[in-house]
Design goal:
Elements: H1 2-5, H2 12-17, H3 22-50, H4 60-96, H5 104-123, H6 140-143, H7 148-176, H8 189-220, H9 234-268, H10 275-288, H11 304-316, H12 318-332, H13 341-364, H14 367-373, H15 377-407, E1 409-410, H16 413-439, H17 454-484, E2 486-487, H18 527-536
Antiparallel strand pairs: 1-2
Helix pairs in contact: 3-4, 3-5, 3-17, 4-5, 4-7, 4-8, 4-9, 4-15, 5-7, 7-8, 8-9, 8-10, 9-10, 9-12, 9-13, 9-15, 10-12, 13-15, 13-16, 15-16, 16-17
């Protein structure tokens, strides 16, 4: 009788390739992004290996291709898809009490567009890698020979369409599919951050599409959008590109902020301090993010008077970001803090590193300082402290935090701590020396440099190898633990958001009955509730 009632086992293709389950799509996003993370990290190691010697170990053309591919892969194929593809897809329906995304088939389409776009970028390596940097500024990108640049444009279009479809899905899901009682003031902070990010993707990505479309037209159809000799304006490309790409910085960090807002109160054993301030500061960042793009162009020929408003807005946007940091610190203050692996990434790893990146960001936001530091390694240090010390640290916090929910098993904690310390030490050793050589005047995007900078470059390269070792250990730990790790219950961390109320891993339909929400997800457990949670775990 049991054999008759048992559902037939589905093939791998039916189970994964044709799935419309938001959880499986989130897993596919995550696994694919980790694959691209290894490729982008390999290009980073090649860049750092070249810089071991002031003479450079590779030829200039190869070096240009390496740093172009490194940044392109990390921005478009790793950080954004991991946060808004993997985490958002897996968690948003669970956290709002929905059975799936609003448009499951469109959700699957967005993943496969992302996958195809990533493959096209990798194919460019066979036909001449793009070498103009991830910004692809004309006029150089107009004259770059070979189809590599065309592959880049095609991939950006496809990945951008994936982002737009994913953003629409998140917006509709959060607005229309929240469980009864899930008011805006009871919404988990991760959902707040992804909703704001989705709106940013929806409004910003078309500007990038316009930039690369006109670039392709200039390359192959004799238009003159960016040909200054024929009346075109190369600066127009920069305005279009950065109208997307500076909001993209917040697209890469706002969901990461949401992860931190979920992890810290759980392990501080306190309610999140200033829920409304954290939620509405995300909205403020999303709004102000569209008014700062031209601070990338202070030395591009823009009038000084035009740069002043962008300098002011770039400094103002630090205020809502600081609000979040102070609220996270206040949440930990006098809490019964448990320094688990996720908490180490969230507190010391993220907050300790992101503050450095935020401080250097206020420096380069000022016009007179930026005119000295623009296109030096100081800017490289800043963006890596924001994106690696910030976004990647948060991604690692989130992976370790929700790993038991995803697999029903616990990772090896000793390897987890080892991976964290390698990441934290590697981050400081790799990126902090870049501040020093940048202040001394070392230009970015160069294959060889003055001998005086060699020592600090060698230190930074050693740090990059430490990060590479940390990545191997982390991925090994996760892969082995997914199969052999200790089994855990549905809520091993004793968290309160809705995803922890279902089994680990969750069933395909998420909830047997749509939950009715009657309380905030950040109220601390009473002693009786905590005892019951521990027993169930």
């Amino acid at each position: 009788m049991e054999a008759v009632l048992q559902a037939p086992r589905r093939s791998f293709v039916r189970e994964w390739v044709f799935t419309v389950d938001h959880k499986k799509i989130g897993i596919m996003y995550g696994v694919t992004a980790l694959f691209f993370f290894l490729i982008g990290g390999l290009f980073a190691l090649l860049v750092r290996t070249d810089l071991l010697s002031y003479k450079g170990l590779f030829d200039a053309q190869s070096y240009n291709e390496f740093f172009t591919m490194h940044a392109t892969v990390m921005v478009f194929l790793v950080i954004i898809p991991m946060l808004m593809g993997a985490f958002a897809n897996y968690l948003v329906p669970l956290q709002v009490g929905a059975r799936d995304m609003a448009f499951p088939r469109m959700n699957a389409l967005s993943y496969w567009l992302y996958f195809v776009g990533g493959i096209i970028i990798l194919l460019s390596m066979l036909y001449g890698m793009p070498d103009s940097g991830w910004t692809a500024y004309p006029p150089y990108s107009l004259t770059s020979q070979g189809p590599g640049m065309d592959f880049w444009v095609m991939a950006i279009h496809i990945v951008g369409l994936s982002s737009i479809l994913g953003a629409i899905n998140i917006i509709v899901t959060v607005h229309r599919m929240r469980a009864p009682g899930m008011t805006w003031n009871r919404l988990p902070l991760f959902v707040w951050s992804t909703l704001v990010t989705a709106y940013m993707q929806l409004f910003a990505t078309p500007a990038l599409a316009g930039a690369v479309t006109t670039l392709l037209l200039d390359r192959h159809f004799n238009t003159v959008f960016y040909d200054s000799s024929a009346g075109g304006d190369p600066m127009m490309y920069q305005h279009l590109f950065w109208f997307y790409s500076h909001p993209a910085v917040y697209i890469m960090i706002l969901p990461a902020f949401g992860i931190i807002s979920e992890v810290i109160p759980v392990f501080a054993r306190k309610p999140i301090f200033g829920y409304h301030a954290i939620a509405y500061s995300s909205v403020a960042i999303g709004f102000l993010g569209f008014f700062v793009w031209a601070h990338h162009m202070f030395v591009a020929g823009m009038q000084m008077s035009a740069g002043i408003p962008f300098m002011i807005s770039s400094l103002v946007i630090a205020v809502p970001t600081s609000v979040k940091i102070f609220n996270w610190l206040a949440t930990m203050w006098r809490g019964a803090v448990e320094y688990t692996v996720p908490m180490m990434y969230a507190s010391l790893g993220f907050i300790g590193s992101f503050i450095i990146g935020g401080f250097s960001g206020t420096i380069v936001a000022a016009v007179p300082l930026d005119m000295h530091l623009h296109d030096t390694y100081f800017v490289v240090a800043h963006i890596h402290y924001v994106l690696f010390g910030g976004a990647v640290m948060c991604i690692m916090a989130g992976i370790h935090f929700w790993f038991p929910k995803l697999t029903g098993r616990m990772y090896n904690e000793k390897l987890g701590y080892l991976g964290f310390w390698l990441y934290f030490i590697g981050t400081q050793v790799t990126f902090f020396p870049m501040h020093l050589v940048g202040l001394a005047g070392m230009p970015r995007r160069i294959q060889s440099y003055a001998p005086i900078f060699q020592t600090w470059n060698q230190v930074a390269t050693i740090g990059s190898y430490i990060l590479g070792l940390g990545t191997i250990i982390i991925l090994y730990n996760l892969m082995v633990s997914a199969k052999y790790g200790r089994k855990v219950g549905h809520n091993p961390w004793h968290a309160r958001t809705l995803e922890w109320t279902v089994s680990s891993p969750p069933p395909e339909h998420n909830f047997d009955e749509i939950p009715v929400v009657t309380d905030t997800p950040y109220r601390p457990y009473t002693p009786e509730e905590l005892t019951a949670s521990k027993e169930s775990a």
